[in-house]
TrEMBL record:
It is an enzyme of class 1 (oxidoreductase). InterPro entries: MsrP (IPR022867), OxRdtase_Mopterin-bd_dom (IPR000572), OxRdtase_Mopterin-bd_sf (IPR036374). This is Protein-methionine-sulfoxide reductase catalytic subunit MsrP. Residues 101-258 form the Oxidoreductase molybdopterin-binding domain. Its EC number is 1.8.5.-. Keywords: Metal-binding, Molybdenum, Oxidoreductase, Signal.
Length: 320
C-alpha cells in the first residue's frame, strides 16, 4: 500500500501540542467525572478508577532486569496510548478499547511455522506453564516520549523453546487480531492490517524480551494490548505489538506493518538509537511522560549491557 496522500499519522503535530491536548483532555475528563458526567465516558471512568486486582498477579517477584526509576502513573499508562486499531490519537484507545477483547477466555494464539511443536492455545493454556514476574521497563516511543511501566509477564523465550524452532527459524513474526467489528480503526486503511511485527530469532530469545499479560498488578486493559502483547524494551515502542493472535517462526525477515507503510522511516531493527535520527525529527532526546524537562535518549534505551552483543559488527545507521 503506497499512498501519495498524507496519512493521518504523518500529519505534522508537534509533540508538545500533542501532549498538551492530552493533558487538557485528561483535566476535562477528571472534572466531568467529579461532577457526575462520567456516564459520557463510561469506559474511561472504569479505566481510571476500577480496582481490579487479579489473584494470579498478586505478590509476583520483581525481576532483576527492572529499572529503579520512578514508575509512570497508571492513569497515563492507560490513557495515553498508541493502538491504531482503535484510532490514531493518543486518547482514542482508552475511549474505544477498554472493553476489548469481548471474549477474553476464548482468545486464541497460534504458534506455527518452522518448528517441531506448532499449536493453538487459548489464553489460559498459553500462560499456565510459565511463571509470571514483574518487570519494570522503560518504553521509548519513536515519537519522542517515554514511560516507565511495571509489566507483568514471562520471557518470550520460554514459550518459543516449548515450540522447538528448527534450523530454518531465523526470524519470528507476530500478528495482531484482525477484526474490524471490534477494532474500528481497521475499517480505514491507515496501515495494511493486520499489524505485523518481527524480531530476529536471537532478539526474540533474549531474556529481556517479554510477553506481557498485565501491568500494575492487573490484567492488561484493551488499550495496552489485552490479553497478551510483546514488550521489547530496547526498541522503539511500535515493535511491542499488541493483542497477538499468531507467532510464527520464519526463514525470511518479516515485512512489518510499519516497513510496508514507510520503509525509509521505519526499519526492521528499530533499536532505540539517539545517534540515528528519524528522517523527520531527532531521536536525541525524549520526554518522560509526567516530567517537564527532556532527557537524553540512551543507546538501546539503556539496555546496551544486555543487548549490544546482538549487533556486534553491524552498521546501525544502515540497519536502523
Ligand atoms: N497492534 C498494535 N500494536 C502496537 C501499536 C499499534 O498501533 N497496534 N502501537 C505501538 C506503539 S507506536 C507504541 S509506542 C506502543 C504503545 O504501548 P502502550 O500504549 O501500551 O504504552 O504499542 C505499540 N504496539
Ligand atoms: Mo510508538
Amino acid at each position: 500500500m503506497f499512498f501519495r496522500k498524507q496519512k493521518s499519522w504523518e500529519i505534522a503535530e508537534s509533540e508538545v501540542t500533542d501532549f498538551d491536548i492530552y493533558q487538557n483532555r485528561r483535566q476535562f475528563l477528571n472534572t466531568s467525572i467529579s461532577i457526575g458526567l462520567a456516564s459520557a465516558f463510561p469506559s474511561m471512568a472504569l479505566a481510571a478508577t476500577e480496582d481490579n486486582p487479579t489473584q494470579l498477579f498478586k505478590g509476583l517477584s520483581n525481576s532483576p532486569f527492572s529499572t529503579e526509576e520512578e514508575k509512570t502513573d497508571f492513569e497515563s499508562i492507560t490513557t495515553y496510548n498508541n493502538f491504531y486499531e482503535f484510532g490514531t490519537s493518543k486518547t482514542d484507545p482508552a475511549l474505544n478499547a477498554t472493553a476489548f477483547p469481548d471474549k477474553f477466555e476464548s482468545w486464541k494464539v497460534v504458534i506455527d511455522g518452522e518448528c517441531e511443536k506448532p499449536g493453538t492455545y487459548d489464553y489460559d493454556e498459553l500462560i499456565k506453564p510459565f511463571s509470571l514476574e514483574e518487570r519494570i521497563y522503560r518504553m521509548r516511543c519513536v515519537e519522542g516520549w517515554s514511560m516507565v511501566i511495571p509489566w507483568i509477564g514471562f520471557p518470550l523465550a520460554d514459550l518459543l523453546k516449548k515450540a522447538q524452532p528448527n534450523a530454518n527459524a531465523k526470524f519470528v513474526e507476530f500478528t495482531t487480531l484482525y477484526d474490524p467489528e471490534q477494532m474500528p480503526g481497521q475499517r480505514r486503511a491507515v496501515l495494511d492490517w493486520p499489524y505485523v511485527e518481527g524480531l530476529r530469532i536471537d532478539e526474540a530469545m533474549n531474556p529481556l524480551t517479554l510477553l506481557s499479560v498485565g501491568l500494575y498488578g492487573k490484567e492488561l486493559l484493551g488499550q495496552n494490548g489485552a490479553p497478551i502483547r510483546l514488550v521489547v524494551p530496547w526498541k522503539y515502542g511500535f515493535k511491542s505489538i499488541k493483542s497477538i493472535v499468531r507467532i510464527r517462526f520464519v526463514e525470511k525477515m518479516p515485512q512489518t506493518a510499519w516497513m510496508k507503510a514507510n520503509a525509509r522511516e521505519y526499519g526492521f531493527y528499530s533499536n532505540v538509537n539517539p545517534n540515528v535520527d528519524h528522517p523527520r525529527w531527532s531521536q536525541a532526546k525524549e520526554r518522560r511522560i509526567g516530567e517537564f524537562l527532556k532527557r537524553k535518549t540512551l543507546m538501546f534505551n539503556g539496555y546496551g549491557e544486555q543487548v549490544a552483543d546482538l549487533y556486534a559488527g553491524m552498521d546501525l545507521k544502515r540497519y536502523f
